[in-house]
User: Fold this.
Amino acid sequence: MSYQIELRHFNYFLAVAEELHFRKAAERLFISQPGLSRQIKQMEEILETQLFIRNKKKVSLTAAGVYLKDEIEFILNHLELTKRHIKLVSQGKFGELNIGFLGSAMQTVIPDLLLKLKDAFPEINTSLEELSNNAQLNAVLKDGLDIGFVRMVRVPKGLCIKPVFNDTFSVVVPANHKITETKFNGMEQFKGENFILFSQDYSPLYYDTVMSICEDAGFTPKVSHKSVHAQTIFTLVENNLGVAIVPTSLQQGFNMNVKFIELKKIPQRAVLSVIWKEDNRNPVLKHCMQLLLGDEK
Assistant:
């Protein structure tokens, strides 16, 4: 009896690849464990390739399995995107744009873009998701997002990147801190302070840039806390648990008992860029990029 790969095989494989545990994957899929094992075995026979290494202690992916996991994530993401677009088209709407972003983009670029889209193409739906740089990168590659707003210098082949906002950095200190904007002479004044930063995993470029700002002032900052949310960072600063260095635009939209001291004379800048996939087939994307970049794209 000959078999063909079906969509169910993809879903079964992906569940096992993510859980790396057949029982947990079977429970997630609401099927029996023996039934799931048979489906995976059938898939391996069809492909004539071993996808999992199984022993009594653990389940792991083979090299072929790792490759297939990435491809299936892309296929299923694109299929879900296509289903959403079909539904929107059937309702007489233009389509949907899925946007990923770092928090600071919501203070500057994104509100302006959403207003332009609403004015020019009111029939376009938009969805927003705040994610780390790497999460956005992976989602754009796999068609989970159409565009992402990130802080990075380079992207893998197949992606495009363009700067869209060039921001200064500011030191964030408690409102009652002895150093004020008029008394600020340089970053060396904060040498003995604890620093509260965005997590390195959230934005490696930001983290390295902050390190370089302090190192240019002759010291390595003592990092006491890390977070992925500006609100958390500002709350920690407000409670005298340290100082922070953030893009200046983040002072908008928060009502916290902190003050910002803009670092106008340093060479480092917080550059926000947009990324998108070169072969993205979403027809809405070209309209978005024209509004965002004009003729630069």
The longest helix spans residues 63-90. Residues 196 and 233 are 6 Å apart (CA to CA). The radius of gyration is 24 Å.
